[in-house]
Amino acid sequence: xxxxxxxxxxxxxxxxxxxxxxxxxxxxxxxxxxxxxxxxxxxxxxxxxxxxxxxxxxxxxxxxxxxxxxxxxxxxxxxxxxxxxxxxxxxxxxxxxxxxxxxxxxxxxxxxxxxxxxxxxxxxxxxxxxxxxxxxxxxxxxxxxxxxxxxxxxxxxxxxxxxxxxxxxxxxxxxxxxxxxxxxxxxxxxxxxxxxxxxxxxxxxxxxxxxxxxxxxxxxxxxxxx
Length: 226
What we know:
The protein is α+β, with helices and mostly antiparallel strands. It contains six helices and five strands. It has helices spanning 15-24, 39-118, 137-148, 168-172, 186-199, 217-225; strands at residues 121-125, 159-165, 178-183, 202-204, 207-213. It has a five-stranded antiparallel sheet.
């Protein structure tokens, strides 16, 4: 009776894991490595990469190229304007030089005419303001010159004009104005000038009167340079 009641033996617990491991073993194997690249593949990849880079650079350069073209055009336009301005400046420079030459020639002619008119004039420096005690300065100067040059009685130099030369501001600074006298004859002027230079000065009361030529400012400046 004991044998009939005995339960059937269960399989050994160690057998199941063996089957499981055996079943799982094929799934754990790693896949085979990919095939290596050939030279042809490398060339194609290289050409593709070059095309992509070229396209990218072209897209980036297009806006810059347009800006550069505009700048080049502006520079060319500016260069043309500079050339035109330079030509105009040279033309104007020639015109200015011509005008300066004409101006100098005209100034020389005017100075020559002015000095020719001044050849009848003499300046007398040293008369105090009001020393003549008359408004008739030409008559006063004619009588004084006849006396100081010891001319014959009744003989006096003929004076066309006589007046004080300069502004009253000079009187306020303590410097009397010159008397400028215009004679009728050149020989009379030369005689008075010669006598004054021989004596170095003429006397009026206690004042020393210096006799000077009446020259234009340009003539005086040229004489100083020489």
